[in-house]
């Protein structure tokens, strides 16, 4: 039941999806998780708990490489969970890092820390007996995993490089406040994982609602001209508007999202669009009511069309905006001018305007592990032992060692270099990204993380062959059309169709403001590389000065521009 008058004509009527039942019956996300935790017969969670643990930041998984062997031995899949932490703006302190480093080493199947495309980390392969101790360890160091998955507002992103120190600090504080404001109010997490007493209260969820949101919801705070968080992948974005280096308010963009389903034309990636400018005093109320409008009008019948992007396309952006304005009690002002110019992280050292130094490390695929001759994970831990600032995870799966005093730079750099954290990867490699995919992701159709390094080597070869080895294209690979590595904002995006087969999409741009379009359907590597070879060859001698690959392929008519996703993407 909403606390606001509802317009039934704007709602989707019909049989609610089963996820709505399970949320309603979950006793505010408790289910019977506690009982399941004690069940030693299976390593997994049963019934509704399988999905409910997601609201607590965990996904039940099993290693897909081991499935057949386990089945042959008549064993159940090797159930474990993946944990995703809540880390608004991706900031983590060295002492927190050392604790997660130890947990990953001692208590996870893969021993890695995986930096994600949403500025946080994941542990993969945590077995049931270690789940509760893991949450208690995290709680001890001031980290939780509340609402990093499930039908809620997820980890709130914030432009990561703190080079414009004061503005960044202000933006970061808003990201943290928005994250807190939109958290579920249920005490289920504290009771189940931290063993806190159940207090007899009548719990309600005034913002998210007692059946939570129709679908996942994603929010960013971004400081132009860097669009490092890829705003168009997100439901709600606060674009920082500054005057004389001071934050004065935000332009609000809503309705971005990248997922689709192969063969279902009612699903498509979509850019976020502008609602207008708001002053700082309205930020939390606007965040709250973009959420409550999506809560009340999002599609709870068909989950494939449940995200904000579809709500806006169904009811119209004007109706959506009017509803938000009415609930907040304020009108959006005209959008203030701003421009996004780029997305990639700024690798190497930069000096902030406060005189502190920040070192951005390229972490291929965000996977921190000790590789032969490249002990990356140990390297970051060694840095954490001496570092006096903090670490910042970027939305491109990289890591910034932030807030280094001039006199400490040499020591940090030496540690980074001696552990392989500062190699001379090409610009192309540093601007390529893949989602996790196999072996842990249950939805993967093709390889992504494990394939990317080889694919990049081929693309490096193509660039060299055409005499432009120093140039790059924004290249992204995802194992399925959910698009976690944001291929649907790449200049060249590969989307998994089946083992070794991908769709190739072309035409995103460097600023991340355009959705690419299908160029090749369900093809293998040879065909993809042949196409890239020919197109990169043309780009190398036909491009206008400064013209990026994505702009080029549209200008010369290789693919049509996607202006309005609903009509253009599948056309
Ligand atoms: Fe994602 C589901 C990994 C960012 C869209 N995503 C999954 C799951 C949990 C698979 C599952 O449901 O069982 C993947 C776990 C793989 C594993 O083994 O770790 C997974 N998503 C990831 C991460 C780790 C990819 C990475 O390589 O970094 C990212 C974690 C983000 C985080 O820290 O919160 C991740 N996922 C994204 C993004 C990119 C972004 O948000 O910037 C998207 C596209 C943007 C969007 O939401 O439109 C994305 N993930 C999805 C979807 C499709 C949602 C939809 O609208 O239909 C799913 C499937 C679902 O929700 O049903 C999904
Ligand atoms: Fe898994 Fe697909 Fe997301 Fe890749 S894009 S992590 S394969 S859900």
TrEMBL record:
Residues 174-330 form the Nitrite/sulphite reductase 4Fe-4S domain. Alpha(8)-beta(8). The alpha component is a flavoprotein, the beta component is a hemoprotein. It catalyses: hydrogen sulfide + 3 NADP(+) + 3 H2O = sulfite + 3 NADPH + 4 H(+). The gene is cysI. Residues 80-140, 354-412 form the Nitrite/Sulfite reductase ferredoxin-like domain. Its cofactor is [4Fe-4S] cluster; siroheme. This is Sulfite reductase [NADPH] hemoprotein beta-component. Binds 1 [4Fe-4S] cluster per subunit. Component of the sulfite reductase complex that catalyzes the 6-electron reduction of sulfite to sulfide. This is one of several activities required for the biosynthesis of L-cysteine from sulfate. Belongs to the nitrite and sulfite reductase 4Fe-4S domain family. [4Fe-4S] cluster binds at residues 435, 441, 480, 484. Pathway: Sulfur metabolism; hydrogen sulfide biosynthesis; hydrogen sulfide from sulfite (NADPH route): step 1/1. PANTHER family: SULFITE REDUCTASE [NADPH] SUBUNIT BETA, SULFITE REDUCTASE [NADPH] SUBUNIT BETA-RELATED.
